[in-house]
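Exercise 7. Given the components listed, write out the predicted structure of the assembled complex. Treat all entries as one system.
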Amino acid sequence: MNGFVTTQRYARVLDLPLSFSQTELAAGKSIRISRLRLERFQRLELRSLTVAVIAILTPGVVPAFLNTALSLCSVGLYRGTIITGPLAYAAFTNTPSTINPFSSCVVETPGDYNVIVSNNTNNTDLSVIATGSVKLYY
Amino acid sequence: MNQLESALVIALRDTIKWESAVVAPESGTLTPVVPSLPFDSVTYQERDRQLAYRDLILGAAVVEVSVQVGDVWNYSLPRPILQGPAPFALPFVGTEAGTFSSQIRHVTNVSIPYDAARYADADLYGRDSLVYEVLARACADTFVDPSIPQIDATGTVIPSTSIWSLGQGAPLQADINALLPLNRDLFKNPDRNLADRDNQLAGYVARLAQALKNPFASALRLYVQIEAFGTVQREPDVYALISDNGTRRVFQTEPALPGANQIIYNSMANTLQWIRERVDEVHVPQIYAMVIPGIEFGQYLETLAEVPDHKDAQYWRGKAGIIQPEGIQVSDTDIYLTTTNNAATDGGYTQYGSASLTVPGLITFTMSGSIPPGDYRVSVLGKPNSTVEIAGAQNISDTSGTLGGATFDINVPSGSVANKVYLVEHGNGIVYNGSVYLPGDVFNGTTADATYTQYGAVTSRIRQYSINFLLALPAGPWTCQIEYTNLSGSTDSFAIKGEYVASGASAVPVIQNIAPIPFTATNGNIQITLPANMDVANAAPFTFPISWTGGDGQFHVRKLTFQSEAVAGRYAMTGTFAGSTAQVDVDGEDKIPGVLRWQYYADGSVVGAVPFSINYTADATLPIQLQQVQVQTLDNYVPTPLGQGFQGWRKECLDRAERSIQQGYAMAVDTYGTDLPTCRINGTYWTPEASENWMSLVEVYNPRVREVPSIALDSITDSFQYQVDTASVVYDGTTYFEGQKFYGVESAGTVYSGGTVHQVGAFRKSQPGHVGLPALVPLGLYFDDADKFVKAYYDSARSTPTLMACQPWMIEYGLYVAQEEFWMPETLGLNLPSDIVPLGYPAPIAFFTGSPVVGEFPLNVSFTNLSTGASGATFHWDFGD
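Answer.
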């Protein structure tokens, strides 16, 4: 591969959108919105990740956090299932949240990587959207 | 410098033509003329042609120096076109030269032919030697590595004189031809032509020497190195010319960054001035020189007359640190635990290699250090593990042994009885603590009475009978294995009994002593029992005594291993830190490491010792190892003035550091060739030791990649850089004070004294809070999901260092992450998110939702209060219109 974006090389760069349209996410639940299997010699670059809460569906409660480090709800890229250890994440507090776009998250080791949206409360149902973009070099 | 100051104005031609030159002898001598022999014009012709060739050598030297000037200062000086290959080192024989001045004693009408050799040729020889030597001396005075050698390095033959370009010359391209009349012009015209060539070359050299004397007048680029107290403080910076108004020539490092360091050359006053990044620090202009004093005491700025070597990662770390973008920063503190199987841990069950919570319970990590009020993140590297490994020495029977094992005492003499369980062998028995014990009896010893006596005439011996382990495991089926060996004597088997004793219940045999376990290895080598099944009734603590009931030799338990079939577990944990609590509720998979993260607001200071407690409340399914703990602060970046918006700069520096490391690694691979050491273990497996070995390989040509704390007093390494941690240290006879850096020098040895230093590096060993940050990873290293081990697909040759997001298993395997200067803000913007202040007393954050938001009049809207930090507050509502 040379340093130029040729048609030959361009064909091996895949832009994958991550899209989680407005969905009810019950208290304490998490949903895997994408599973990326990275094979040897491939490279994954997470370019953006955004989460927003559209509505609180459980009125009249003060949210109690299951994981205080992850705020109301979050979206993250994970290797494994321990949700407090994301490789990159955005957590919704009062406004929609996005990862720092200047700090791209690069993965080159083979394995299964999950993008998970989670409701981090144990008492509040949420209506959530999440979007993102992944560049896959294969 | 004593070089030529000027040259007469002559029009430089772009070519020193080859003409009829013939290669001159390498000895530097011309073909001799012997006046006593018959006249032969060919000899004279040959000498002139050799002189013409020497001009070509001189032309090549001019080109060579001109190229070097271009390399360093990035501007192009006029240089002649070469009409063929010629060496650029001019040979010189002092006796061949006539005068070293502008004079050329051309032949006249009254001269004899021999004068052409005696005077004119000698003068031409001296002239080109002088022109060359002036150029070589200018190079020697300026460049660290001059491109052309001197011919009179001692200065004893060729005088230090300003040069000129007025030899009586004209471009004639004449040649001595035997067919032409033997008159003055036959000899003079070729010499005039040679003199003209020398004039041309003198003109070129004059221009070059002026540029070498004062590169600031025309340079487009400067390499500047900062020194303090004789030590290089930073690697050379590149300063590029950013403006030139005819008087002030301004060079700036990193032209893309506003307010970066500048050097200003005033061409009228011939002064240099340095302006440091913060615009209030301006240096008084100095008479220009290659080295000028800096702003601080003891500081010097050196303009390098060479292209510096390629930059290492630490250099780019320094570059990245120039800019502080805005946003939320996560910073490391010096409060952490890299291992937990030590006295810093209280609670849980200590496993082989780390602390653990095998069942719900409480564990406390106490770390030394102090914290002020603020926001904190505590990260723990956890590894759910269905394999519970208990080191032999982790028993409750005061029994220890080699390599963390437990060694059964044999032939215990009177006076050495301890708090252990003993068995009487042979003889008539013993008397201990007022009781008689016959052979085969078991008794509990106590240190309060360490002696025993023999009971009868035939001597008995006592030996340790059992060791007891205290443990708790999730309820369900488990298997148990013992790693054991024999340490003295010889035996072919041991009769061992292992029992599960739940609290208040009878002992349940797990390992039966009816079938002895074989020992077929060499003493000290480990063997493992077959898995024995056991059912754990509940998650309450139980004891697990292991008893020796037969077999010669000395039984040693290295490790107990319990194994369940659980593959996943839930971990609901409350963490307490600095008086605040925070929650974690996560799911884990067997043997896959993960990072547990809590965030706190500490409303008071903690001084001296910082405890962090975890109360694990659910579920008792899969034990979890807690391997490392790290405390980080969460704060705002205070951005560098005018540095906002340069978020990408840090990433750029990181990318350049990666390239630099990769180049160095490729060089190391080439250098080692077939002797390249392997970093893999037993085929493809990888270990934390393999990570260190690989980093050593990375550092062969990148000596400032790895930060290493607390360097031993005799371990200074050549070319590595060190920074003083204590008040001062002494190395190589020089005292360095806290914060100062110095390089290891081979001639200065490996020893320093008077304090401690750490090795400076752009990457540090990863800790739990670093998950997701850029980590330096060998290409092809991966976590094998089937084997649950880390493996290297490639061996060293292709294990190219690659930057990628740090994953939890990389922390367990001791890989290195980029230092903080390379990091991005985790969250952009200047406001702390409310989620990092879950408890404590931060400012309240108002947050309401209302619904419905659309409807017909009159519309009843229900508001939900989601404010945080507002407990007990009253609210003021203002709906405007």
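Discussion: The first helix of chain A runs from residue 7 to 10. Residues 44 and 107 of chain A are 5 Å apart (CA to CA).
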